[in-house]
Amino acid sequence: MDSSSIVNAVLKRKYNRSYWGRIARRCGGIIDRSPRISIGWVRRTSNTAAHTLANWAIVEPNKTWTDDVPV
């Protein structure tokens, strides 16, 4: 299962009965209740900042982001 499949399931509101399907359904419910939240898929090669931060979080799990979200 790759991330684009999960994003498509949430956007189309078509969830399977697997563990990730239940999580995707809950995410879809949160998105439905908050008009300021959106979901989209971006290739990892086009989103190197998020990929680098995600890998850093694995190595440094006790760090906290204290500044503004990057734009």
TrEMBL record:
Signal peptide positions (record): none
GO MF annotation: an example: nucleic acid binding
InterPro entries xrefs: RNaseH_domain
Domain RNase H type-1: 2-57
Highest taxon of the lineage: Eukaryota
Any single Pfam family the record assigns to this protein: RVT_3
Name this polypeptide is given: RNase H type-1 domain-containing protein
Organism: Trifolium medium
